[in-house]
TrEMBL record:
It comes from the Bacteria. Keywords: Signal. This is Lipoprotein. It comes from Streptomyces spongiicola. PROSITE patterns: PROKAR_LIPOPROTEIN (PS51257). Residues 1-23 form the signal peptide.
Length: 305
């Protein structure tokens, strides 16, 4: 979640600049070319640190709201979610990593992870107090909190946009097509038909194939009553159950991906692209990473035991 930059006293800014400079000197430089491409989120973007910082900010905000007579966040809304920037990590497409048995049991789907309870506000008093508490929590983390958070997400957005644009370029599109051709031919040889003649996507085999569903009850629908603060209950894990037709296509696709090396080819392409884009932001990354680490140290102290 992005935040506006807040004003800070000149003395505090000067002190923060000194701290950041010291942290940059003490923080071991990272050879970006040596970072494993399946660990880009943590090694380049410090995803674990950002997650910790935001979690501590949320805890401080919940404590503040509780003191002001709004206990909902502290009671239900402080569970840690998945780390940010996860799509920066390079891995083969999920369907291509599955065994025949896994593909049969899951098709092209995934089980849905449990979801924490969530708080929805339709109360202006809650909203105003939330903004005050959130900004107060950010100030406790440090005068650079908002700036560092904004820069981290801006860097992620820039890298993601440049990566996606490069993957769509004619040269990279040709690499993708070359990896797809033997995969699609293999699936077709297995007795499956492309429902759009000449289509060069795996999805073309799945058009009209009934898909599965997630078992169990999904998230509750909010009531949206003006003047209230609504707590939606937690949602347990929901297992995905594919149809028999989906499973058959998934097994064939996984088997063909192994035979043609599609997963490895795709991952190698994305690894090459992400390295190129990250290298273009090397100086920005080098400046930002020690500042995030310093802020994470502050968050750790505030989190306590």
């Amino acid at each position: 979640m992005r935040e506006r930059r807040t004003r800070t006293a000149l003395g505090a800014l000067a002190a923060a600049a000194v701290l950041s400079a010291c942290a940059a000197e003490a923080f071991e430089a990272t050879d970006l070319a040596a970072v494993p491409t399946d660990k880009v989120a943590d090694e380049i973007f410090r995803a674990g640190d950002i997650d910790l910082i935001e979690h501590v900010r949320n805890r401080l905000t919940g404590d503040c709201m509780d003191r002001q007579g709004y206990p909902q966040l502290k009671r239900t809304g402080l569970s840690r979610q998945s780390r940010p920037f996860a799509d920066m990590d390079v891995r083969p497409p999920l369907f291509a990593t599955r065994t025949d048995e896994q593909a049969k049991l899951l098709g092209f789907g995934e089980h849905r992870r449990p979801e924490a309870a969530s708080v929805l506000s339709y109360d202006r008093g809650f909203d105003k107090q939330f903004e005050r508490c959130r900004h107060a929590a950010g100030r406790r983390l440090g005068p650079e909190f908002s700036e560092i958070q904004n820069q981290s997400y801006r860097l992620y957005n820039d890298v993601a946009d440049e990566r996606d644009a490069l993957l769509k370029s004619p040269a990279e599109a040709a690499v993708t097509a070359a990896a797809l051709r033997p995969l699609l031919a293999c699936v077709e040889a297995g007795g499956f038909r492309r429902h759009i003649p000449g289509a060069r996507t795996l999805d073309s085999f799945g058009i009209g194939v009934p898909t599965g569903r997630h078992e169990g009850t999904g998230p509750a629908e909010p009531k949206r009553v003006p003047g209230t603060v609504e707590v939606l209950p937690a949602v347990p894990e929901r297992r995905y159950v594919p149809t028999a037709e989906e499973s058959r296509l998934a097994v064939a696709s996984a088997r063909c991906a192994r035979q043609t090396g599609f997963g490895e080819k795709t991952a190698a392409q994305r690894a090459r692209v992400i390295r190129k884009v990250v290298a273009a932001h090397e100086s920005e990354i080098a400046r930002l990473r020690p500042r995030v680490a310093e802020l994470a140290n502050s968050a750790t102290k505030l989190a306590g035991p």
